[in-house]
C-alpha cells in the first residue's frame, strides 16, 4: 500500500477522505474555525454530523456548535437530488420522442438499468423490440477515407497510391475496388506505359471507359472490364457475369468475417493479427465487467424469507458503527502527531473506517428492509396501506414511491367506479427528538412535489392519497 507523503495530504483532503459525504465548503469552514486542528474538527463532526452517529442513516439538523454546517450540508444534498431528478426527467423526455409506446415509469426503469445513459437505453429498447424508431435515419454511406482504411487492411503489401487509384476507378466502391485489386497484379509494375494509362483511365470520375483490346490482361495489368470477366470466367456458371470475390491466401490463423459496408452483401474476409485478437479479447472482458446489473425491486428483496429480524441487522450495524468511529478517532489522533509516519498511519486508519462504513450501510439497509417487512405483514389482505415506522428517510421514500406506483396501476386496471385510497403511515414523530417528525415532513414534501392529492391525519401521523 502506498502511503501519501505529508505535502500531498493536507488537512482538507484528509477530512474529505475521512468523511466522503462531507462537502468541501463545510469542511473548510470548520477547519478555519478550529485553526486547522484536525483532531478538534473531527470531534465536532462526530458530534454534529448525523451520518456519523445515526444508525438508520437519517439526517439531522443539529443546532449545536457547528454554526449551521449540517444545515448547509442538508441544503446542498437537497439541491443535488433536485438536479438529478431534473436530469432524469430530461432523459425520459428524450426517449419519449423515440419510443412513444412506453410509459414514463418504464423508460425510467430502462434508464436505471443502463446507468442513466440515453444511448445505451435506446439501443436496449431497439434490441428488445426489434422495431426501428420513428425518427431514425439510415446510417450515412462510408467515406472514401473509411474505404481506403479497409482496403489497406485487406492489402497491406500494396502501396497506398495504388489503392487510391483503384478507389477512384471504382467510384469509392470498396467491394469493386477489392475485386479490381485481386484481379490485377498491383505488386508488379506494368510492362508498357500505355497499358498503365488505359487501366488508370478506365472510368475516372465517371468518364466513359476507354476501349481495350485485351492486351492489358496479357501484360498482367488487366483493366476493370477484363478483370471482372476473368474473375467471372472462373465461376462454375458461365452465364453469371457478376464479379466474384477471390479471397487472399489463407493463413494458419483463424479468419473473421464482417458485414458489408453497404449492408447488401458479403465483405472481405481478413485474417486478424495477433495484436487485434488480444485487443478484442480485452474489449470482450471489459464489456462483460461493465454489463449493467438489473435493478432489484425493493419489495422483492424485503419479502425474501432468508432475511433475519430487523433487530439482528440493527445490532450488526451498531457494531460496525462503533468500529468505524474508533478508526476515525485513531486516524485523527495519528494525523495530529504529524510527520510521515503519523500521516501514513492516519491514512491506514481512514481506509479502515471507510471499510467499516460500507458494512454499516449494508446492514442498515438490510435492517430497513426487514423492518418494512415486519411492519407490513399485517397488511397482506389490505394492499392499499403501507407502514414506514422505523425506516430512514431514504428507505421510506423508496418504499413510498414503489408502493404508490403499484397502487396506481391496480386502480387503473380496476373496472369498478370507486377507487380505494392509499394510506401512508409515518407516525407523529414523538421519537424524533427536538428535530421534529423528519419522516412525516419528508413524505409530505415528496407527495407535494409529485402532485399527489392527499389528506393529512395529524394525530395518527398518516397520509391518505386519493386516486382522483
TrEMBL record:
InterPro entries: CUE, Endo/PolyKinase_Domain-Protein, Smr_dom, Smr_dom_sf, UBA-like_sf. Residues 238-274 are annotated as: Disordered. Residues 386-468 form the Smr domain. Residues 7-50 form the CUE domain. GO terms for cellular component: nucleus. Signal peptide: none annotated. Gene3D superfamilies: 3.30.1370.110, DNA helicase RuvA subunit, C-terminal domain. PROSITE patterns: CUE, SMR. This is Smr domain-containing protein. CDD domains: CUE. GO terms for molecular function: endonuclease activity; ubiquitin binding.
Amino acid at each position: 500500500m502506498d502511503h501519501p507523503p505529508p505535502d500531498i495530504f493536507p488537512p482538507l483532503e484528509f477530512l474529505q477522505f475521512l468523511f466522503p459525504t462531507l462537502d468541501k465548503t463545510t469542511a473548510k469552514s470548520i477547519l478555519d474555525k478550529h485553526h486547522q486542528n484536525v483532531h478538534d474538527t473531527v470531534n465536532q463532526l462526530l458530534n454534529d454530523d448525523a451520518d456519523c452517529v445515526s444508525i438508520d442513516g437519517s439526517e439531522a439538523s443539529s443546532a449545536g456548535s457547528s454554526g449551521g454546517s449540517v444545515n448547509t450540508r442538508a441544503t446542498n444534498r437537497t439541491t443535488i437530488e433536485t438536479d438529478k431528478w431534473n436530469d432524469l426527467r430530461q432523459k425520459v423526455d428524450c426517449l419519449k420522442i423515440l419510443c412513444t409506446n412506453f410509459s414514463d415509469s418504464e423508460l425510467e426503469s430502462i434508464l436505471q438499468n443502463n446507468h442513466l445513459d440515453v444511448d445505451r437505453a435506446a439501443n436496449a429498447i431497439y434490441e428488445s423490440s426489434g422495431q426501428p424508431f420513428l425518427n431514425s435515419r439510415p446510417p450515412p454511406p462510408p467515406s472514401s477515407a473509411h474505404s481506403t482504411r479497409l482496403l489497406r487492411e485487406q492489402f497491406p503489401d500494396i502501396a497506398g497510391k495504388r489503392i487510391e487509384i483503384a478507389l477512384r476507378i471504382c467510384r469509392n466502391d470498396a467491394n469493386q475496388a477489392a475485386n479490381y485489386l485481386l484481379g490485377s497484379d498491383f505488386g508488379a509494375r506494368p510492362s508498357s506505359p500505355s497499358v498503365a494509362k488505359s487501366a488508370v483511365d478506365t472510368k475516372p470520375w465517371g468518364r466513359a471507359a476507354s476501349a481495350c483490346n485485351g492486351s492489358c490482361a496479357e501484360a498482367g495489368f488487366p483493366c476493370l472490364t477484363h478483370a471482372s470477366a476473368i474473375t467471372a470466367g472462373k465461376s462454375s456458371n458461365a452465364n453469371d457475369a457478376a464479379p466474384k470475390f477471390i479471397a487472399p491466401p489463407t493463413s494458419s490463423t483463424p479468419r473473421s468475417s464482417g458485414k458489408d459496408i453497404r449492408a447488401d452483401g458479403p465483405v472481405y474476409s481478413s485474417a486478424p493479427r495477433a495484436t487485434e485478437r488480444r485487443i478484442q479479447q480485452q474489449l470482450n472482458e471489459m464489456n462483460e465487467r461493465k454489463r449493467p446489473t438489473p435493478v432489484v425491486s425493493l419489495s422483492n428483496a424485503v419479502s425474501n424469507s432468508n432475511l433475519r429480524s430487523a433487530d439482528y441487522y440493527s445490532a450488526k450495524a451498531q457494531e460496525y458503527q462503533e468500529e468505524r468511529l474508533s478508526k476515525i478517532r485513531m486516524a485523527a489522533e495519528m494525523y495530529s502527531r504529524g510527520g510521515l509516519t503519523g500521516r501514513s498511519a492516519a491514512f491506514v486508519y481512514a481506509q479502515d473506517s471507510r471499510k467499516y462504513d460500507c458494512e454499516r450501510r449494508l446492514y442498515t439497509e438490510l435492517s430497513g428492509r426487514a423492518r418494512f417487512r415486519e411492519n407490513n405483514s399485517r397488511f397482506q389482505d389490505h394492499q392499499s396501506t403501507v407502514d414506514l415506522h422505523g425506516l430512514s428517510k431514504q428507505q421510506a421514500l423508496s418504499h413510498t414511491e414503489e408502493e404508490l406506483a403499484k397502487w396506481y396501476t391496480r386502480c387503473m386496471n380496476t373496472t369498478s367506479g370507486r377507487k380505494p385510497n392509499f394510506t401512508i403511515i409515518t407516525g407523529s414523530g414523538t421519537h424524533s427528538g427536538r428535530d421534529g417528525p423528519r419522516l412525516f415532513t419528508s413524505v409530505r414534501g415528496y407527495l407535494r412535489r409529485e402532485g399527489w392529492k392527499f389528506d393529512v391525519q395529524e394525530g395518527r401521523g398518516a397520509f391518505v392519497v386519493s386516486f382522483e
